[in-house]
């Protein structure tokens, strides 16, 4: 039995379904269901409020943060969990801006996830300090970096195409110009090797419900580099980011280190699911997963291009520049994806015309890839997508 046979057995996958959407929502780990049941029954049920002390609920965001930190190459004690990814983007960006008085420009790219850009726009508007958000083509980032720029805010792996920025190179170039970096690892954590400490990243954020499999609405994480951790000022100075929450001071005093980036009450039940989901990483390392993901991605690209000539690859052809997803475009991409889902091959669609497939070796194998490609070929060859029902847009695509 291979290591990936073992990890696949750790997940609940519905009968007959090939799941190529783990880059949007990871499947349920068996152990997570057991862990949540236990937490609800034995901790919440029996301990009631004493669970905050007896079960370690208060320490959970830091404990789990360290486990994610090991997957993204963070120094121990510099990742903490809580809230949503949008809130963590806001926190990181606001703190980074306060470190850069006199600089007015936030640089990002046109492929960044819209929510990150919305957070930046809202922050700029509320601060009302003459700040601006400058969006450039992903290939033009290095040419946009100069001494007027305060922050470089990028998602490492493009959510639509899977295009991957060179984090080490762009962080180095930014620092040469005195620019602070904020990296979004939503499509990186659990998918590609990341080493925040080695590249010298300033801030990083990410979600846990994609490749980390914490379940819908799972909590986000934030990383603050050790050199900044005791200096940054949290824009959202929440109760649990206070130095001594149960002193009930009427004014805020920041906790030490990354703990000050905590805001509200931690989502204990979802963190329990995430703790259990992370157990899969006790059996496999990130480099092994990455190598297998590349092999499966290359196979999928080859099969789809061989049998579905009307689909156009929009992901980088060079695997080293591509995250753990493969995307194709077609004017009828939405209908094609609905037809594919109806055949129990689940990917997703991203406007305007992109069919997106997550390649997650923890539970996807070679036969899944071949079956998915052949199903897609049949849908295209026989025009099975050409139905009115498949063109009706659902609220979530």
UniProtKB/TrEMBL annotation:
Sorted UniProt keywords: Hydrolase, Pyridine nucleotide biosynthesis, Pyridoxal phosphate
Keyword Hydrolase found: yes
One cellular-component annotation, GO: cytoplasm
GO biological process: anthranilate metabolic process; L-kynurenine catabolic process; L-tryptophan catabolic process to kynurenine; NAD+ biosynthetic process; quinolinate biosynthetic process
Superkingdom in the source lineage: Bacteria
EC number(s) on file: 3.7.1.3
Catalytic activity: 3-hydroxy-L-kynurenine + H2O = 3-hydroxyanthranilate + L-alanine + H(+); L-kynurenine + H2O = anthranilate + L-alanine + H(+)
Gene3D superfamilies to which the protein is assigned, alphabetical: Aspartate Aminotransferase, domain 1, Type I PLP-dependent aspartate aminotransferase-like (Major domain)
Pathway it works in: Amino-acid degradation; L-kynurenine degradation; L-alanine and anthranilate from L-kynurenine: step 1/1; Cofactor biosynthesis; NAD(+) biosynthesis; quinolinate from L-kynurenine: step 2/3
InterPro entries (alphabetical): Kynureninase, PyrdxlP-dep_Trfase, PyrdxlP-dep_Trfase_major, PyrdxlP-dep_Trfase_small
Binding-site residues for pyridoxal 5'-phosphate, renumbered to this chain: 85-86, 113-116, 155, 184, 187, 209, 239, 265
Record has DNA repair as a keyword: no
Pfam family, one: KYNU_C
UniProt family annotation: Belongs to the kynureninase family.
Assembly information from the UniProt record: Homodimer.
Protein name: Kynureninase
Lineage, broadest ranks: Bacteria, Pseudomonadati, Pseudomonadota, Alphaproteobacteria, Rhodobacterales
């Amino acid at each position: 039995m291979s290591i990936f046979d073992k990890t696949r057995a750790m997940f609940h996958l519905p009968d007959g379904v090939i799941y190529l959407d783990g880059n949007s929502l990871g499947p349920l780990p068996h152990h997570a269901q057991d862990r949540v049941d236990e937490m609800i029954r034995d901790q919440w049920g029996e301990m009631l409020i004493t669970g905050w002390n007896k079960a370690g609920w208060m320490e959970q965001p830091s404990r789990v943060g360290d486990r994610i930190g090991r997957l993204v190459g963070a120094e121990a004690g510099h990742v903490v969990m809580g809230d949503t990814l949008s809130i963590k983007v806001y926190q990181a960006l606001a703190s980074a801006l306060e470190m850069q008085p006199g600089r007015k420009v936030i640089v990002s790219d046109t492929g960044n996830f819209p929510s990150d850009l919305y957070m930046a726009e809202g922050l700029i508007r509320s601060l009302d300090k003459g700040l601006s958000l400058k969006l450039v083509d992903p290939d033009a980032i290095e040419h946009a970096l100069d001494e007027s720029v305060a922050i470089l805010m990028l998602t490492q792996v493009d959510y639509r195409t899977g295009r991957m920025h060179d984090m080490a190179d762009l962080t180095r170039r930014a620092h040469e110009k005195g620019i602070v970096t904020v990296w979004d690892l939503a499509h990186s954590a659990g998918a590609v090797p990341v080493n925040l400490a080695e590249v010298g990243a300033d801030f990083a954020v990410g979600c846990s419900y994609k490749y980390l499999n914490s379940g819908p609405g799972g909590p986000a994480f934030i990383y603050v580099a050790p050199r900044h951790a005791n200096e940054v000022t949290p824009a959202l100075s929440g109760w649990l980011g206070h130095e001594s929450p149960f002193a009930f001071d009427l004014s805020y005093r920041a906790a030490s280190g990354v703990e000050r980036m905590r805001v509200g009450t931690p989502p204990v039940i979802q963190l329990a699911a995430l703790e259990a989901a992370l157990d899969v990483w006790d059996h496999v390392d990130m480099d092994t997963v990455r190598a297998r993901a590349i092999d499966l991605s290359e196979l999928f690209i080859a099969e789809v291009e061989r049998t579905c000539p009307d689909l156009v690859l929009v992901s980088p052809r060079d695997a080293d520049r591509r995250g753990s997803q493969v995307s194709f475009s077609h004017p009828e991409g939405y209908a094609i994806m609905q037809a594919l889902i109806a055949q129990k091959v689940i990917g997703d669609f991203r406007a305007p015309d992109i069919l997106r497939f997550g390649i997650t070796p923890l539970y996807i194998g070679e036969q899944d890839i071949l079956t998915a490609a052949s199903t897609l070929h049949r849908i295209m060859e026989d025009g099975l997508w050409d139905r009115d029902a498949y063109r009706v847009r659902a609220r979530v695509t």
